[in-house]
Design goal:
By secondary structure, this protein is of the alpha/beta class. The protein has two domains: about 1-220, 2-enoyl-CoA Hydratase, Chain A, domain 1 (Alpha-Beta Complex), CATH 3.90.226; about 225-270, Orthogonal Bundle (Lyase 2-enoyl-coa Hydratase, Chain  A, domain 2), CATH 1.10.12.10. The protein has twelve helices and ten strands.
Amino acid sequence: MSSILKELSGEFIKVSSPIEYVLLVELSRGPVNAFTVPFWKEYGEVFRKISLLPDVRAVVLASSLSKGFSAGLDFSGLDNLKTFDADPGRKALQIRADLKEFQEAIGGPEKCLCPVIVAVHGITLGLSIDIMAACDVRYAASDSMLSIKEVDVGLAADIGTLARLPKLAGNQSMVHEFAYTARNFSAAEAEKMGLVSKVVEGSRAEVVQAALETAKLIATKSPIAVLGTKKVLQHARDHTVAENMEYVAVWNGVMLQSSDLSDSFAAAIARKKATFPPLFKTPAKL
């Protein structure tokens, strides 16, 4: 595993495995994890590779920096716009292609085969919210200062916040207020809105520990069952009840044949902890 972790880690992201079957992915670009093009490309590649690993059952995403999770986009990284075609139509196509690649990278946790728990603290601005919205479970330290910052720099958030957040949050008025005003909001307000499920008293150490504890619990479950649950929940978000019932019937028509089902029943009868094989036997080449 150590060689794989070394291969996963890069210039801006550190990957470790503090608990069996659990990865800790840490954003590590000082001083405030501002995202450049190479940073978000590395981020997308890390999550692509994680889905190739058979024995990863949960991921915690956090920052390694004391100041916070991320200050959002490093606008010096937008200099590439100057190299685009001068013609408005052609320039628009080039911008669209860049944005689609950016969206795909930041959406990496959503496509990951196992649940991703994001643990934020301190400065959590702009692109941070796009990142959070693409994760399955969201925790915030009590010292978190969050903002949907994009209107302050003259644009509508376009990397996932406005697409996902209205479907995640229970308080639509707060979603609109924060998106229109770009004002800072607290972890308590994020919980009230429905962006986070838990506020952890403290800062980085405390929220990461809480996320790791949840990841450890998830990792004890059948990976087939957890994967199926993630896929069905995502489908339910984007489809009608009837469509989702048909989807899960087809999905479980295959997955109920997994040995995980019989292993779970046998362990329950014997009052023992079930153990499960990897999702697939041979690690894919990274």
